[in-house]
What does this fold into?
Amino acid sequence: MFTLVLLTVTGFTLIAVLYVYYTRNKYTTIDAFLTARGTLGTWTSAATIFASIMGAWILFSPAESGTWGGVTAFVGYALAQALSIIAFAVLGPKMRRIAPHGSSLTEFVYYRFGRSMYGVTLIVAVFYMAVFLSAELTGIALGIRMIMGLPLWATALLVGMGTLIYTTYGGIRGSIFTDTLQAAIIIPALLIAFSAALKAFGGLRGLTSEIGEIDLSLLSMGHRGGLEFTATLIIAIIAANLFHQGFWSRVYACRDIKVVQRSFIIAGITIIPVVAVAGSFGLMAVAGGALEVPSVAFFSVVLGITPPWVILVVLVLALALVMSSADTLINGIATVFTVDIARFYPDINGQKLRFWARILTGIVCVVVIAVASRGYSVLYLFLVADLVCAGAVFPTFYGLYSERLTGNGAVISTLAGIGAGALLFPDPAFTRGSLLYSFLMALVVSTIISLVFCFTSRSAADLDGLVEKVYDIKA
It folds into this structure.
């Protein structure tokens, strides 16, 4: 099995490196490294967006939620993820009209709101992407250790370094190319695992019959805990993914605004059945009594009731998932660093700019790999990052529509929202507080204060002027 893991990671890495090498004369600028601006059609865009959001998390979180919240929880999970992607079909075209030559979200914030809000957004975005990357590597490391006993550090290092190599070498082009391949693997592999597991229960009727005898509420779309979970996720996931630079790079990679709209909607809709299928493994774990560790319910079902060959399919699936999301995250972090270096050091040449962007991205990835190799639970950090994003999301993106919201107003609104949400945020042991109420508080408070600033402000930003201020990097 280790040979399969090694071959899969090495294969994706070599294919991407070779692709970047043989197309190196076609894409020579920093802008091509960051955004592949205007080169993707609808279906290629939809494939890379879909693969980028489909990380190893779909083998853990939806199934775990299904063990206690049933159909309501994992369908809600699917809906929240879909809405977070479809949101770009609305905000992406608006961003491209206001800043057609832009590259990153933080770049827009810098010229729209100034240094203070830029600093807040930079911290939020990089922290969220680093936590997401750490969660992906931790998840795949734990899954492979469960299957074959491989040390956590070995998996984290192998997958992390392989993805880092082709992403820092080729930028977004390497990420997009491998995403297309990985998207073609993810759906068939997941369906094979699902079909094999369902067959062991005697089909869908057999599974629902067993679940009905254990807890009929798991099959109901009115499960109260599942509904609260869905509402929480809709706020948290939409807010967090809007600070994911990998998706903003893909907004600019699309050929035109119509492609942006179509590709993000197609990817969002496609996510729903895929996450729902993955979540159904939680019901299978309940029916099969494999609930010792709910977070690995997917793997418990596959290892417990399917033929041995299915686990090989799951290994390839898991690696495709984690590399497809990890390369997007690494590229997103690299884009933020590259744009910021170029802005503060405008005389730097292209070669040096690439060098320092790769060094800084590599440092972040080394830290992430080290964290993943320890097997820590990153759930609480993830929730903290989501809360921060929930507090920042309205002030940041309302700036696309309102000329009255000032930089100071955006900062105060963001910090007030985060602070209000923190008052109700659960402690690490989840003995007090409420995730739903904390996220609602962060969103509502930041929204209200932003609107108050808009109504009382006497100054107005020049949104039309951002067309000239925000520019692509020519080096």
The chain has a mean pLDDT of 88. The first helix runs from residue 2 to 22. The chain has two domains: 2-376, 378-466.
